[in-house]
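Morning!

This is the sequence you dropped in the shared folder:
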Amino acid sequence: MSSLTPPLTKDDFLNTDWQDVINDSEQKECFSYWRAFWQKAQEAKEVENTREQAVFEILAAVTNVAIRRDSTEDFFAEHYKNITDEQLDFLSAIVSDISDAELQARVADILWVIRRDYKMAQLAISAYLQSANTLESPDNWTYCFDRIERSLHLARKIKDQDDKVFNHIETVINRYQGEDHLYLSAELMRLLLEYKKGKPTKYIALTEKAVHLAESASNWEKARILWNIKAGWHRIEKEREQELAALRYAAETFFKQAQSTLNQDLPSYITASHFLQRAVQALRNIQGTKEETSAIRARGNEVHKLLLECQQETHKEMGLISVDSNMDISALVEQAQDHVRGKIFHEALFSIALLGTSTNVSKLRQQVEQQAREFILSHISPMVMVNEMGKVIARQPNAILSNDSEEAEEAIIFEMYHCATMFHQKLHGFICIEPARYQIQLEHNVRANDILAIISSSPFIPPNREYLFAKGLYAGLTGDFLTSTHILIPQIENSIRYIMWERGIITSGLDDRGIQNEHNLNTTLYHPEITSIFDDNTLFDLKCLLVEHSGSNLRNRMAHGLISDGEFMNPLMSYIWWLTLRLCCLPIILHQQQVDQSNNSSDPT
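The structure's back. Tokens below.
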């Protein structure tokens, strides 16, 4: 927004119908206001009311990001760094006249973050708590929790009003008495525990009530959180035996989750193996004297044996028809673990990045063409792929044996993507990546910052995206593929645009309204010059995993919410995590090798 003469005043704000936006918004939170404020700005522009337009543009600018757990001061400072002093003066003039707590909290927070106005921090704390009351819901609990957490961070920052926040937290917890079916009470108790507030005896009893309700509803994730919280309260009370018992119960929730998976009408051994792995790790991580943990260690060994039995069943589930039935999978698993075993963390991370290669396109083509010749009947009709609801999601252009060479080539490529998914990516994820990843977890207590320190210099990662990659890679390393997949796929998309842009390749379009929309992977991965960036095998993997319908199409399926909870346990999610790690680490490894070679060649000895 350009400067106005004279600058905007409080009267300009009061003379608009900004409150109509608030009143008409079903959800009283900033991101819901943003689009309506922007629409108001466009309406004012059409009638050439420049001052009203400017007011709504500022309101749209301050509300165009949703508050969330990573909405730290650094996040807000970076997002709002382009707000001018004139606009800040205007916000300062109107903040006390904003009757909506949510909008007032956002404006006050911005003024605190940028101008370090102590009174604005105090106002933001109170307004956030008021907004949390408005947004409180046991179903959509994150809106309420995020504002309480932000108010607490502010209170701790300015060393004022934290008692007010903690009182608010306890009031909400008391209101639900552990009976809310999602996570609001649990997360609020976690905050009390983190700052050692509240009476442990009270919350031990309340947590125990809540955890039994969660387990009776088979909500194992929530039960796990609550058992760990209960262990924390016992730790404060120096009740060592009860603390260890709670930690063991927390670990057992993974075992129970595996059992639930196997007891379903369509049991998944892949998913069950994942939870059994987590159970073994959790049990082994419980620290205590040899006497205190002997029974826990014995239980860990027992679960480990069950894990090995479960893993023997997973290859049947994956439908890997190209695998020799006599293949000793356990030997391959052991090789993968040996590949990273006993190494310091950064070497282990580089080792898993170099564990195997992308799909060998040339070899895969030969296999597909050979199978077409040997099994003629199965290749006469085009392949049709359907999803779990029976809907057709991909149809082979024509049979491989078509007389039309162009159609035959399209059919070959179609089957290559399908085979790569089933016979390379899933297999590599399950037999190689997962055992190696699990071995790294057993040997290293890793944090996201440990990964950040290693990959931050990677040329694959654009500036100011380092932490996103580190967060996504850390989530995948710990087995949280739901989080890693949602973080990493958009970042891969952006990185590819960034690398193309660095090379002078246009990565956006220009429509007839002058709007420049960024190209997505459905376009960039097929740009003629993309082959100068990625080798054939890596490019094939990216297309197969992310955008091809006969492959996994993860980018488009994720963007449209078509991936179910259980699918995030699929080895393909492990493979996309590994491929991202490889793209980040390989340039660093190659550079270090060049440096080492240069140093060796210049060594006079």
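Headline: DSSP finds 27 helices and two strands in the chain.

More detail when I'm at my desk.
O.
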